[in-house]
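Cross-posted from the bioinformatics board.
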Amino acid sequence: MKPILYKKLVPWVLCLALLSLSSCKTQLAPEYDKAIVESLTANTQKLMYFLATIEDEGTTPATYTDRAASYYTLIGAFDALALQAKARPVPDNVATKKINELLQSKGSDPLSSDYPSAFAFTKISETLKKMKETDQKNGIKPFALQAFKGQILIFLDQAITYESFLKR
Amino acid sequence: MSDVTSIINDIKDISTTILKKDITVVKGFSERQVEAIAKQTVIITEGVASGDIDEELKKFFFDGLKAMAENFVNTLKGILSVTLEKLYNAIVDKLWSIVGGVV
């Protein structure tokens, strides 16, 4: 290569090398979404308030109508959160593919087949639906009430921990 | 100019800082979840024994236990992928700063 051509090319090659190196960052998990976390915080407060209004002795179908609107509001809110969480693009790059190949070769599910928070939101909504159905039909007895509350709180913890952790 | 030992030490420092912080979160989350799932199992057992939880609800709560255990593991996997991402990017940043410093 002629020295003059070499001198002209070298700066461009270096620039390209710098650009390719600077794009080496990878993404293995979805972006933190402030709107999801804000909605989750607000709806967690509403959910905790609703659960606190139900006495430990349980409920009877006679008073179901007092709670019906709260059930519908909360079911709608957590269904919406599940949709929002699922709507985020799944990171698609070489690193994710390699990790997923490794996990699948060991018999595990891929990393991003379903976001754990989206799954938890769906389960919270399903639990509220079952709680509403039981409340309306037979009333909720004390141990069943504790089990409904426990199930909701466990899934909430999973969703909150995951969504908060996405804030790098 | 950086030598091999200082590069290794820098990478070790970066990894230790990220892992220490993230492991604290993982440890707290795991302890809370394991305790809560154990309590939930006891509540369901007592509820079935007392008659507060009928056959239909028993199946619903057992399916719930299975789902929460699966999602507990998936949440840990999700957290781990964020940690891996932070580690990878921090190490690449460090290496890039060394190469960039020379260029």
